Amino acid sequence: MVAVSDPAPVRSLHPLHAILLAFPFPLFLGALVSDITYWNTFQVQWANFSSWLIAGGLLGGGFAMLWALIDLLRFRTGRTFLYFIVLLAVWVLGFVNALVHAKDAWAIMPESLYLSLVTTLLALVAAWIGYSGFRSWR
């Protein structure tokens, strides 16, 4: 029988960081769903819902990104760098999406739908990277 060991233990997220990371994906997903609903119904209230959901996703994502930056400065691994870059991309595209949603409701389609889709997918990737754990020091 051979004992196999992992060269570096897996470091999980801090519990508060995990809570902050739990906000962007569902909020951006809700914005995507409300954009799809607006696309199908053209009732302006769905665009307003989407704007508020994006603002919440930006708030939670901004704090998670700040925590990821601190982790990047502390640990300096490739995976923490990738995690920070994906969170930064989520936040930047979410901010652009918020600016698009600030226009008149009739003028936001179809670009708001596409931005919501890309932002949601990137938020899913960031959550996947974050919750799957990080390798500790080499």
UniProtKB/TrEMBL annotation:
The chain crosses the membrane at residues 18-39, 51-69, 81-100, 112-134. The keyword Transport does not apply. Keywords: Membrane, Transmembrane, Transmembrane helix. InterPro entries: DUF2231_TM, UCP029509. The keyword Iron-sulfur does not apply. It comes from the Bacteria. Residues 14-130 form the DUF2231 domain. Pfam families: DUF2231. This is DUF2231 domain-containing protein. It comes from Pseudaminobacter soli. The lineage of its organism: Bacteria, Pseudomonadati, Pseudomonadota, Alphaproteobacteria, Hyphomicrobiales.
